[in-house]
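Q: I'm writing up a methods section and want to include an example of the input and output format. Could you take the sequence below and give the corresponding predicted structure tokens, formatted cleanly so I can copy it straight into the document?
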Amino acid sequence: DARKTDGNIYGKLTYELVPGLNGFVDLQYRHVAYHSQGSSQEYDSNGNQLPFDVDKQYDFFNPKFGLNYLIDNNHSVYASYAIAHKEPTRNDFEDMMAEANVVEPQQERLGDLEVGYKYQSEKFSASANLYYMHYKNQFVLTGAQDYNGGMVARNIPKSYRMGIELQAALTPFKGFRWDVNAIFSRNRAKDMQLDMVDED
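A: Here is the clean output for your methods example:
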């Protein structure tokens, strides 16, 4: 018996600071409530089904702000920074019972910084986007499996993703378009310690 309530309020403001330069602010407040009572898919050492009782509420503030500058009719640059949150899922709560000595799943927090350049003409367009995504308590698959064989995720205290996205499109004549894209990225966990188990 589970119930999830999810509601949000959202607002956006865009303002031309000077000719060609626009600033924007996006603001979102989100409330999530999760209630569950019953049995889980996990069993104890005696073969008894473990109870699954959860009563959690989350309040998230997710802002985003940035600048867009139109250099001329063909060239533009932009920069933005955003904060986003993610609540644990039902599986995350159940999976914490699949392994011993695992703390309760925490909400995930992301800070995303992006800087980019765009070129646009009648027949050709191209863009480059640099990003740095810093996580707190990111949900990452561990390689472990739950009782039903599903993959188990755990919170990683600190992690990041950084890279560059490249895109280009060519339209030499009407009815034909050629697109190419590439992504180069680095994804790492920071200051992570793994508990080693000695086997006799």
